[in-house]
Amino acid sequence: MAVTEMQNRIIEEIQEWKEKRNAILLAHNYQLPEIQDIADVLGDSLHLARATIDTTADVIVFCGVHFMAETAAILNPEKTVLLPDLEAGCSLADSITADQLREWKAEHPGAVVVAYVNTTAEVKAESDYCCTSSNAVDIVRSIPEDKEILFLPDMFLGSFVKRETGRENIHIWMGECHVHAGIAPHQVEGVLAQHPKADLLVHPECGCSTSSMFLKSEGVLPEDKTHILSTGNMLKHSKNSQADEFIIATEVGIIHQMQKQNPEKQFLAANPEAICPFMKMITLEKVLATLKENKHVITVPADIADKAKLSIDRMVSIG
Ligand code: 13P
Ligand code: SF4
Questions:
Q1: pLDDT tens-digit series, residues 227-244
Q2: Which of 15, 178, 192, 221 could form a disulfide with 215 if both were Cys (CB 3.0 to 4.6 A apart)?
Q3: Does domain 93-177+306-317 correspond to CATH entry 3.40.50.10800?
Q4: Closest approach atom of ligand 2 to CA 65
């Protein structure tokens, strides 16, 4: 995508401020193309969380959503974490509160709580393990078979994990991401009918993920061409696969990176309307303002951060 003269000037200023402040710019795969293009590190939730620990920068500008910046702040209390827009939230993280989790735990004494990273710090503080879409299965497998598990908040990821691990003792919270839940099985099937040779890449948060797994196991969807993957693993797969066409069932922002890395291949959105309004709130202007004015610094109260860090440390060390 062509960058305007105005955008170029802002990008130059961002680079100057990054140097002045010894800052690093992290961006999630769903960010606007111009943000992806200036990121020092681009990736999925797990890759970005790990990158916050590896960097020697003093300031982390998190081009993503609130829970991601909060996780970075918990892992790096000595660094300044900035979120360019405080309104960049997450409908999935909002689907469970710490009080609701405490009530759920009281109904299942002794159960192990596995929380998706798309949760608030308060919810993470009430959890035993945190996970992302790329290591949820590994994390659940690391928990002794006889332990009851409370998995939250995403029901589609939960049922994917349940199916992959074959565990019956997993209780799943009925939360969802409104963007991924909106990607329906009939939309995937419609695009697949037009492009029968395409690889189908599905994010486990999608409304179509359960049916895709089922149809794959029934042989309706081709076994070797249907893959349920995190956004980072979707990027790896699209590079390594011999296929020329790919149907992408996740937020459409990732297609920018896929197309950039594989100009000769074709990427088709299962639902072109799958756009996360929170991810798109981060603009070049806001990134510059954040660096210049040191706004909005994300902090987490020490008592909550200390408890949440235990579950986040497990997340970054497994898988
Ligand atoms: P991943 O990038 O970890 O696959 O997560 C997707 C997502 O919805 C982030 O909010
Ligand atoms: Fe949250 Fe869904 Fe947006 Fe990811 S895509 S940040 S899960 S609302």
A1: 999 999 999 999 999 999
A2: 221
A3: yes
A4: 6
